[in-house]
Design goal:
Blueprint lengths: L10 H11 L2 E9 L9 E11 L5 E9 L7 E5 L6 H4 L4 E3 L10 H12 L36
Antiparallel strand pairs: 1-2, 1-5, 2-3, 3-4
Length: 153
């Protein structure tokens, strides 16, 4: 299946979908830990969600965090004029969104976004797994979300 027919939308198409359908579109990028000689697995994810803002326009919600933690490394809402060009180059899947999903661990949010898109992706049942919580004082390096390595959030 080529890129144009895989069900994903360009950024511009995703914004048009959000505005017409009053739904959402998302893109997810895995975050990998240190590179080793052994098999490498994703430790977290960056999620970009284009959503209707309820006031006649759209906004981009950026969420990043490690799997199996209730702490996010980033949770930002960007206005249309603040969206970086690098995000505008990504491809998005149409989905539905429920504001309560933002209270979930990042892997559960991702699972629900994928389910809402209607694609037949095989994802583990994260909702049935035991939860771990980060303590309040826990911070994640900003490098985790790709914004440099000398700051923390």
């Amino acid at each position: 299946m080529n890129e144009e027919n895989d069900g994903r939308l360009s950024f511009k198409e995703a914004v048009a979908y959000v505005m017409q359908q009053r739904q959402a579109a998302f893109c997810a990028m895995p975050v990998f830990g240190e590179v080793t000689d052994e098999e490498q697995t994703a430790e977290g994810v960056r999620i970009f969600i284009i959503e209707y803002d309820g006031e006649g326009d759209w906004q981009l919600r950026f969420i990043a965090g490690p799997f199996f933690s209730n702490a996010y490394a980033a949770f930002e809402i960007l206005a249309p004029e603040e969206v970086p060009d690098s995000v505008r180059e990504l491809r998005f899947l149409p989905t539905r969104i429920d504001s309560h999903w933002y209270d979930e661990q990042v892997q559960i949010l991702l699972q629900k976004l994928v389910q809402g898109s209607g694609i037949a992706a095989q994802m583990p049942d994260y909702e049935s797994m035991p939860m771990r919580h980060a303590e309040e004082q826990v911070v994640f390096p900003v490098s985790f979300i790709g914004r440099g390595d000398d700051k923390t959030h």
